[in-house]
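Posting here for the record, re: 2-(butylsulfanyl)adenosine.
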Amino acid sequence: MDIAAARARHAELSTQLHHQNRLYYALDAPEISDADYDRLFRELLELEKAFPQLTTDDSPSRRIGAPPLDKFTQIRHQQPMLSLDNALNEDEIRAFDARVKRQLETSDELEYVCEMKLDGVAVELVYRHGRLVVGSTRGDGVTGEEITANLRTIRSLPLQLEAPYPALLEVRGEIYFDTAAFRTMNEERTTEGLPTFANPRNAAAGSLRQLDPAITAKRPLRIFCYGIGALDGVTPTRHDTLLNLLNDWGLPINLAGMRKTVGVAGAIDYFRELIENRDALAFEIDGMVIKVNDLNLQRQLGATSRAPRWAIAAKFPPRQAETTVSDILLQVGRTGAITPVAVLQSVKISGVTVSRASLHNWDEIARLDVRIGDRVLVERAGDVIPDVVKVLTDRRDGSERPLPEPATCPACAAPVKRFNDEVVPRCQGLACPAQLKERIKHFVSRKAMDIDGLGGRYIDQLLELQLVTSVADLYTLQRDDLFRFERMGETLADKLLAAIAASKKRPLPRFLFALGIRNVGAHLAKVLARQFGSLERLSTATEEELTTIHEIGPQVAASVVSFFRNPDNRAILQRLAQAGVAAQEEAPRAGGPLFGKTFVFTGTLSQLGRTEAQQKVERCGARASGSVSKKTDYVVAGTEAGSKLDKALQLGLTVMTEEEFLVFIEGLEDST
Ligand code: IVH
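Prediction output follows.
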């Protein structure tokens, strides 16, 4: 391919990827499958590898990171990023309303916009002519750190605004983590022996302050925008209209969390509702922001050097409580990682009884200096397990006992070892029952082999009765074995056996994930499955081969190779195979009657859904693309096909009607 063709294709791919990205992340309405998206993305990366000059700063490839920085540069905000004054209770909210009315010399009720106050990190994004050019942290409000490359990795953030966009937009927002994503990330970090983050806000801050954007790219960060610095070209008169404009330009706005009220009473109602419902949200909020809706009134009210007078942060009561650490338990994970957990005297924090708190690791224990018997302050955030935030050292009476890092495994007494770069020690016991239990739990879990009904209680009994010594033993269990369980009837036993049998043919990515290869989570399992197609191929892959794959680094490559080299693992894999466990292999990338061909579907297909049509051609080895180019082999035009059909005709491509396509593909499907 020459540079001109590469440039054209690159432009085409960029447009397509930006568009699909927005459909997927901002509108939640994807038009193409993940696999198709990945294919387009990979094609883009390959092009950029061959023609590095195509790698512009707003290329979709920046979603996975730009070259690392040596340090951050300081950047001055055009307009200072102010903070907010706080209202700590309903009276203080009313006092805010009274203050505003007094200053405006009015007794009329004011229109307010109430927004959720996200607990994350404030950033500013500058868009010039629709393009994201600079992003920075709030810093001290006047100067922040330039973190553009990191912000570009946030998928829901447009690199290019939707037209008609303003000439200049400085938009502000909060970077945050979904609670569930935060929890998953911490779990993965524990398995990998990395320090866990204390809360989603810390995790967001830590992820943004990475010199290597590729690291930021791996963190599932999100953003909601809530206001602006400067805006040229449009002059909205109300804050809610402004938010809607931002939304139209493609920026993520929490419109669902916004409430307009006339008068302060409605704001207080919403405040109460939010306190009641905050646990049901996908993200952590620590309060509600009340803003005067009329932008003229906002200007009239002005700001102090610290905060605007037209807004206030109504903070939720803290979800903290004081209690005693009655013990510190040591949990052994499936890779042997030993993590400390505080056992607490039960205490209620905003309606929820708390009896455990996470201590993360020994560095954290040392930092807090927490000891068994200590009075502590615990805080609950979202539905993650609570944290010890502080030890009340002045309440000590001398009976408190520190818990040293263990030298042996609490479950099997084997020696433990802490590797150089890790913050948790690991049990070195090969037959550690605690590790085995966690491995089995992982193996049967929903995202892995999904063995329905095989919960922790049964796994405990399987281990106690020594019915299993590895996951392979699950598949040789007999009815009589299960009858040895407490309270096990025939129906239940048959159900369990059926669930186990049903798991024998899971798709390869799930099976790979279930194996619990170190550093291989659900996502990388998919990547590996797609690349290698079968367990057999993967098991003989070399580190060199593995590291050529995008997303697979030397660490993952090494753990994959060492997993398959390990004789115990090989024996287990062999036994699984003997028991009839055969993961469904991924469709081969080569082969199929339409291998190498590209299809574009356009217009409305009346008999098939778009997805179904795409799956049909993919099963025959072809790929479905969203854009027409010289490289397209077939275009299937439904009713109301528009510009893509025109382009196809212009290029002289083969165009089929839906009926013709159905006849064509049926003939081929029969032959596969
Ligand atoms: S408005 C000039 N709206 O809270 C007023 N802030 O305590 C700017 N925050 O630094 C703030 N959600 O990082 C506003 N819906 C929201 C917010 C919000 C979170 C953060 C923001 C700000 C801090 C002030």
